[in-house]
Amino acid sequence: MIDACTPKSKPLLTINEALEKIRLAIQPITQSETVPLNTALGRILAEPIYSPINLPFDRNSAMDGYAFASNDKPEQGTFFLECVGTSWAGKPFVGQLQIGQCVRIFTGAVLPPETDSVIMQENVQIDGNRIVFPEESAIHDNVRHVGEDVQQGSCLIAPPKKLTVSDISLLASAGVAQVLVKRTLTVAFFSTGDELVTLDQPLSTGKIYDSNRYTLQGLLADVNISATDLGIIPDDKQLLEDSLVAAAKNFDVVITTGGASVGEADYVKEILERCGEMNFWKIAIKPGKPLAFGKIGTRYFFGLPGNPVSVMATFQQIVAPALRQLAGESPSKALRITATCTSLLKKAAGRQEFQRGILTQDDNGDFFVVSSGAQGSNILSTLSKANCYIVLPSACTGVKLGDKVIVEPFSLLLGE
């Protein structure tokens, strides 16, 4: 797509080109910190964790039943053994079994060293202390062996894994009480524009409530990010410049909304070119064409559009991957699925579009998507109704009823 708003028209960057420029420009943080395991969920691991113990630590039973020695099982026929005690979980049997003896055992309890098999309690008959075993009793069954899950000294989890609930469970089972993780990113954000007012003020003609800072606060709600709201900056070039420079001294990333377009009061691009480094400005995306990326000193800057839907879309598609890279997380792509579109969708060729849709799945597992309504970049109500983006490539000129489209569910995007 050619940008008709600039004197020297040239093709706008595609999303992939913009993401590649960001990837090459951003250097992940190297600093780390040690945190207790119970606060590590979602943090990004900074070093490998090796198991200090075998898992399981002891040979134990996988079932409630009776532990016995396989040598006590005859080649044919039923047989009985004398039950001489019980091995409880946390309280092992302490005696020594003789030939012809067995012990009652519970799930997770340690097997006596003389035994190597466990039969489920439902498969035996009990006659006082005599336990009658059926002919088909299997040997070496229902036994969890030392280290069969994890060997002592082996790597439990390698960086830069973002720790999940399953990871936390694994680490806890190995007795790991604290982990070294990447430090949190510091991100400052503010809105720009004389038209903006805070929610505690009454509206007057020409004014609008600032929803963008609330949007960004939600989008930045991540354990790897410490976000700071710097409020609203009016359309004053010097004040805006001072605010950007001051923020860049104290935060890893600065994000603004508004002021990145081509109006006379849109100062962000001009200030960034003077005080920092402009990597790119404007990309072939809808909503959200006027998006700036660059640096102020050594800190990264994102200038997002002012329209609220554009803020959401550009953050999720452009800023979120950049923050994950900066935080040291492994690169990943958003899950996209194919769905049948049950709406007519209008689109002009030139920009990749992220239209708001409602995704459903029928009893056969097939996916269907319908437009959530008007697609203007100021229409927040249809964004609230939606649960996905309908991703339309730049060459697309519209979608007919029944066409297959690519869909990106919100639930798998940062901030949803």
Could you outline the blueprint of secondary structure elements for this entry?
Blueprint: H1 15-25, E1 32-36, E2 49-50, E3 60-61, E4 65-68, E5 79-87, E6 101-105, E7 117-120, E8 125-127, E9 130-133, E10 143-144, E11 155-157, H2 165-173, E12 178-182, E13 185-192, E14 196-197, E15 208-209, H3 212-219, E16 225-233, H4 237-250, E17 253-257, H5 268-275, E18 277-281, E19 285-286, E20 292-296, E21 299-304, H6 308-327, E22 337-341, E23 352-361, E24 367-371, H7 380-385, E25 388-392, E26 404-409
Parallel strand pairs: 5-6, 13-16, 13-17, 14-15, 17-21, 19-23, 22-24
Antiparallel strand pairs: 1-12, 2-11, 3-10, 4-6, 4-7, 5-9, 8-9, 18-20, 20-21, 22-26, 23-24, 23-25, 25-26
Helix pairs in contact: 1-6, 3-6, 4-5
Short description:
The protein is an alpha/beta fold and 416 residues long. It is built from 7 helices and 26 strands.
Q: Key features?
A:
416 residues, alpha/beta, Molybdenum Cofactor Biosythetic Enzyme, Chain A, Molybdopterin biosynthesis moea protein, domain 2, Molybdopterin biosynthesis moeA protein, domain 3, six-stranded mixed beta sheet, 7 helices, elongated, disordered N terminus, metal ion binding, EC 2.10.1.1, Molybdopterin molybdenumtransferase, molybdopterin molybdotransferase activity
